From TrEMBL, chain A:
<dbReference type="InterPro" id="IPR016450">
    <property type="entry name" value="UCP005522"/>
</dbReference>
<protein>
    <recommendedName>
        <fullName>Circularly permuted ATP-grasp type 2 domain-containing protein</fullName>
    </recommendedName>
</protein>
<feature type="domain" description="Circularly permuted ATP-grasp type 2">
    <location>
        <begin position="73"/>
        <end position="450"/>
    </location>
</feature>
<dbReference type="Pfam" id="PF14403">
    <property type="entry name" value="CP_ATPgrasp_2"/>
</dbReference>
<dbReference type="InterPro" id="IPR051680">
    <property type="entry name" value="ATP-dep_Glu-Cys_Ligase-2"/>
</dbReference>
<dbReference type="InterPro" id="IPR025841">
    <property type="entry name" value="CP_ATPgrasp_2"/>
</dbReference>
UniProtKB/TrEMBL annotation, chain B:
<dbReference type="InterPro" id="IPR051680">
    <property type="entry name" value="ATP-dep_Glu-Cys_Ligase-2"/>
</dbReference>
<dbReference type="InterPro" id="IPR007296">
    <property type="entry name" value="DUF403"/>
</dbReference>
<protein>
    <recommendedName>
        <fullName>DUF403 domain-containing protein</fullName>
    </recommendedName>
</protein>
<dbReference type="Pfam" id="PF04168">
    <property type="entry name" value="Alpha-E"/>
</dbReference>
<feature type="domain" description="DUF403">
    <location>
        <begin position="1"/>
        <end position="309"/>
    </location>
</feature>
Length: 474, 313
């Protein structure tokens, strides 16, 4: 991968400032680097004081860590955004249709577009959802679509997060921080706002409430608790929406409804935005060891008396093995060609693909089908011979556990490094809300940036940082 | 409001109050050590006892030294009652109930936590002790100020106040419990240096020296001190004052929830039966027995509140 094939979102391929960055470029040319450095420190101080931290698993000494924030915004033009959001909406509608189908008639399998065993043998498939239609027929109320860019017009979907996508609090807090530190930038650039997200989220969740309540639905956010890595976000969203942040032990089933223990007794909850994984949701129906869930909630759910967002079993749609079928899925349910491209993917379960992958490990990115957070993956071009050899063994032992993709030359955006502006690879996670009233996409999202020079791993658990993401007015 | 949230608020403010009390106690000890001739490390035992930290200290140390005592009370993680442990516990609870707090309160609390942590990263030298304790007390005062100035007067505020005053009453009662003997008229040789120091300890430990002087004059007398700490309704750390505040706040809860809970009756009983007479009645009852009784009633009240408002189940 040579440098000139990498697309920089500020400077393009040819070192001339691209349209969306014109104003910003003029501004930063006049800025004193010393002032910016001070601002960078100020930002960090703000994050620490606000407590925007995440907990790192398995690291006792660094219980709460900051995700590094870079003050250089990532800027997307209004026109680019319109194109992206069309593609995202199409994809999200297809995912919901797919989930309904998979848990009902399985037409897509009957039509031979997806092999039966992809579903039947998939641990993300949730048998207790078969034949169950969630309130409003919505499965994925909240979605995060991970996108990467390789050229001016070339975007790929890297991953669909249809279970419990996180990071939206960073989208909001990053913007707050930028507004506070560089108000002048926002008077020069017409940046589309993101602050409406919590209100939209609340309305969207309320619109998905069980029918026939006869009162305003009560929404709650279910968190695994204070030690969860995303606890800050759970508290933040509950706070911003003005709803209760509950844990499993605050809830129980009372009179056929899920109810929370308040200072005045048990009160029913109608919509639960859960940030707890499926298997911990209900110790009676799933993992009996779970302390995080609510015994019997699935029975209430089956009776149509609570909305669980996202629905259990949505993982079948963002499974990495299913991912490779997304183009077929989009076409099958929308009758349209996919507007957003998939990254070409080899399913190692298939012998031909496995042979190709084994021959080309040095060039490929290999991922665990069920992994997340950048753990358990191989990035061929940057891996050592030994790492590749070790991975080859794992791959041969359990090929069905892996998919492989070409190493994309991800676009870069400058960060404010010690030496000044320096290009670093980025991805983008826009956030999508789905309700019977429609699909809403917040103009912006979470830009994750690999802070290490040349690195392609943007995950916060692996030393990535974040940036404010601007979508300019069209 | 969730029962868990009420619980978190209550404990956040209890720990905050406790942190302040512990910090004040170290200041008191240090002041006595510096202002008395021939003072010895053993005097820190009395301070440790006042803070209820003597047993833990002895279990973890072979002998008593001033430095070790200060370290134990200020920053030792093995001491669950150290200032730093209290502040961490307050913050842990605040994280749990963060959505119930205003931004100002959260940032003030997180601010004092961050500051205290960096100031007590290593052992604090004698030279740095006043500034460190000062910063911590200033920080906790800021949380209190932000609470007062920015929080809605609703059930959230009521639970915060209930935690504050229950802890404060408990703290004052505990100081009296450890020191009651120096306030007994029969045993005190009025005016002796020993007693003066002991009385000074008691008054400083509740930030009451100035207030006492203002109301009772410069000469301390055990009867007046008892009156001041137990019954004086103007003294914000007296048992009578704290109990009245508890009654007020439980009353606000009762009226906003539209139901009187058993805790209301219990606080009324405590106030009417034990804190509405004069100090002679207290001495007739027996100062020690009186304090013991009040401590027991406070603990019982705490449990009743947890039960009434479904903190746990």
């Amino acid at each position: 991968m040579s440098n000139d094939t990498i697309f920089d979102e500020m400077l393009g391929h040819d070192q001339t400032v691209r349209g969306p960055y014109q104003q910003f470029d003029q501004w930063i040319a006049d800025e004193d680097p010393k002032r910016l450095r001070a601002k960078q420190r100020e930002a960090e101080e703000l994050f620490r004081l606000t407590g925007i931290t995440f907990n790192v698993y398995g690291r006792a000494e660094a219980e709460e860590r900051l995700i590094p924030f870079d003050i250089i915004p990532r800027i997307i033009s209004g026109a680019e955004w319109v194109r992206l959001s069309r593609g995202i909406e199409q994809r999200v509608r297809a995912i919901n249709a797919f989930l309904h189908d998979i848990y009902h008639g399985q037409e897509i399998i009957k039509a031979g577009r997806i092999p039966q065993e992809m579903i039947a043998k998939n641990s993300a498939f949730e048998p207790c959802m078969i034949g169950l239609t969630p309130p409003g027929n919505i499965y994925t109320h909240i979605v995060g679509i991970d996108l990467v860019r390789t050229g001016p017009d070339q975007f790929y979907v890297l991953e669909d997060n249809a279970r419990t996508p996180s990071g939206v609090s960073y989208m909001l807090e990053n913007r707050e921080t930028m507004l506070q530190m560089f108000p002048e930038l926002f008077s020069k650039n017409r940046v589309q706002p993101v602050q409406q997200y919590p209100a939209q989220l609340l309305r969207s969740l309320q619109a998905c409430a069980p029918s026939g309540l006869g009162r305003k639905p009560t929404v709650g956010v279910l968190t695994p608790g204070i030690f969860n890595s995303a606890y800050f976000e759970h508290a933040f969203l509950a706070d911003e929406m003005g709803v209760e942040l509950v844990e499993g032990h605050d809830l129980r089933v009372v009179d056929g409804r899920v109810a929370m223990r308040t200072t005045q007794g048990y009160q029913p909850i109608d919509v639960l935005y859960r940030r707890v994984d499926d298997e911990f949701l209900d110790p009676l129906n799933f993992n009996p060891e779970s302390q995080l869930g609510v015994p019997g909630i699935m029975d209430v759910y089956r009776a149509g008396r609570i909305t669980i967002a996202n629905a259990p079993g949505t993982g079948i749609a963002d499974d990495k093995a299913i991912y490779s079928y997304m183009p077929e899925i989009v076409e099958f349910y929308t009758g349209e060609r996919p507007l957003l491209e998939n990254v070409p993917t080899w399913r190692c379960a298939e012998p031909d693909s496995l042979a190709y992958v084994l021959d080309n490990l040095e060039e490929l990115v290999v991922k665990e089908v069920h992994g997340s957070g950048g753990y358990g993956m191989l990035i061929g071009p940057t891996a050592t011979k030994r790492e590749i050899a070790a991975f080859r063994k794992k791959l041969k032992a359990r090929p069905g556990n892996y998919i492989a993709q070409p190493t994309l030359s991800l676009s870069t955006v400058p960060i404010f490094a010690r030496s000044g502006l320096a290009p670093r690879h980025v991805d983008l996670r826009p956030f999508v809300l789905v309700s019977p009233d429609g699909v809403q996409i917040t103009p912006g999202g979470l830009t994750r940036v690999a802070l290490k020079k040349g690195s392609l791993v943007v995950n916060s658990s692996q030393g990535g940082g974040t940036k404010d993401t601007w979508v300019l007015e069209a | 409001m969730l029962g868990k949230t009420a619980n978190g608020l209550y404990w956040m403010y209890r720990y905050l109050e406790r942190a302040e009390n512990a910090a004040r106690l170290i200041e008191t000890g240090q002041r006595i050590a510096l202002t008395r001739l021939g003072s010895s490390d053993e005097e820190w035992r009395s301070i440790l006892q006042t803070g209820g930290m003597a047993e833990g200290y002895d279990a973890a140390h072979e002998r008593l030294t001033k430095d070790a005592a200060i370290n134990w009370m200020l920053r030792d993680k093995d001491n669950p009652a150290s200032v730093m442990s209290d502040i961490s516990a307050a913050r842990q609870n605040a994280r749990m109930v963060r959505a119930a707090l205003t931004e100002e309160v959260w940032e003030a609390l997180n601010g004092v936590y961050m500051r205290a942590q960096s100031l007590t990263q290593r052992k604090v030298s004698e030279r740095d002790l006043p500034a460190t304790l000062g910063a911590i007390r200033q920080g906790t005062a800021l949380v209190r100020g932000a609470t007062h100035g920015t929080m809605m007067r609703n059930d959230i505020y009521d639970f915060a106040r209930i935690g504050t005053f229950l802890e404060r009453a408990d703290n004052t009662a505990r100081i009296l419990d450890v020191k009651y003997y120096v306030l007994l008229p029969s045993l005190s040789a009025v005016g002796s240096t020993v007693d003066n120091v002991q009385w000074e300890t008691i008054l400083s430990a509740v930030s009451g020296r100035g207030g006492f002087r203002m109301e009772y004059g410069p000469i301390a007398d055990p009867r007046d001190i008892s009156q001041f700490l137990i019954l004086d309704k103007r003294m914000p750390r007296s048992l009578a004052f704290c109990t009245r505040k508890l009654r007020d706040n439980l009353g606000y809860l009762a009226s906003s929830y539209g139901s009187r809970m058993p805790s209301m009756a219990k606080v009324g009983h405590l106030e009417r039966t034990y804190l509405s007479h004069d100090i002679d009645a207290v001495f007739d009852f027996g100062l020690h027995e009186f304090i013991q009784k009040v401590l027991m009633l406070l603990a019982d009240l705490g449990q009743q509140i947890e039960h009434d408002y479904r903190f746990y189940e």
